Structures are given as structure tokens and as C-alpha cells.
Structure to design on (128 residues):
């Protein structure tokens, strides 16, 4: 039996998370959603092998996205993180690039074409 890959969407904007969820499910993923940074970190830290990747908004209530990435790195997590935010300047991009678990940085809004391409790549290669 085919076991669908599972992603976590860490996003506090319900409209954005539902859109990401809809596209991901259409592409064959199981989807979980976290609406706070603390919830996202807890889900990832306790289920590191469960998620094929995590779509992580940097500006979550509670724990900030960068702190989630730093804490997961301390845990030697291999979870692949796709950061997306309404604001990623060169300094933030360079800082995020240093973390091996960050495989992509995307600006909001993400087009359907780019989003679908990310999902297809993960399905075909197991990672981005």
C-alpha cells in the first residue's frame, strides 16, 4: 500500500494554511497544521521522522520561526524546512542559508506554479 508523504504547515493565517493544505493534498500529501511556533516545534521535535518537509512561516505567534530552526538544529533534526515569509531580506536569507535543514526560502505570496513545483520535487526525489 502506498504511504503518502506527510508535511507540516506552520502558519497562523487560516486562509494561507488552507490554501497550502488544499494544494498539498491535491498533490498527494497528508497534511498537518500548526498555528503557533510552540505547536510547530513540539510537533516536529516529537515526530522528526514523520514529516517529509515543513512549510514554516517565520512570523508565528509564540516561538519565532528562526528560533524553531535553531532549536531543531540543536536536536540534530533532519527535517527539511521550507521557509516562507512576507519579508526575507538579504541578511535573513544569508542567516537561514547557514542551516542545513533549510532547503528553500520563499516569499509570500507563493504562486501556485512554484508551490506545485515544490510538492512535485518532494514527491519525486523525497526532498527538495
Amino acid at each position: 500500500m502506498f504511504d503518502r508523504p506527510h508535511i507540516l504547515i506552520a502558519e497562523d493565517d487560516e486562509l494561507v494554511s488552507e490554501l497550502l493544505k488544499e494544494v498539498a493534498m491535491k498533490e498527494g500529501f497528508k497534511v498537518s497544521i500548526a498555528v503557533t511556533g510552540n505547536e510547530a516545534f513540539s510537533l516536529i521535535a516529537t515526530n522528526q521522522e514523520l514529516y517529509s518537509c515543513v512549510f514554516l512561516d517565520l512570523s508565528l505567534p509564540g516561538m519565532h520561526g528562526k528560533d524553531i530552526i535553531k532549536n531543531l538544529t540543536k536536536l540534530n533534526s533532519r527535517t527539511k524546512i521550507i521557509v516562507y515569509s512576507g519579508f526575507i531580506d538579504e541578511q535573513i536569507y544569508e542567516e537561514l542559508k547557514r542551516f542545513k535543514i533549510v532547503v528553500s526560502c520563499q516569499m509570500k505570496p507563493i504562486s501556485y506554479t512554484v508551490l506545485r513545483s515544490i510538492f512535485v520535487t518532494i514527491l519525486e526525489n523525497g526532498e527538495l
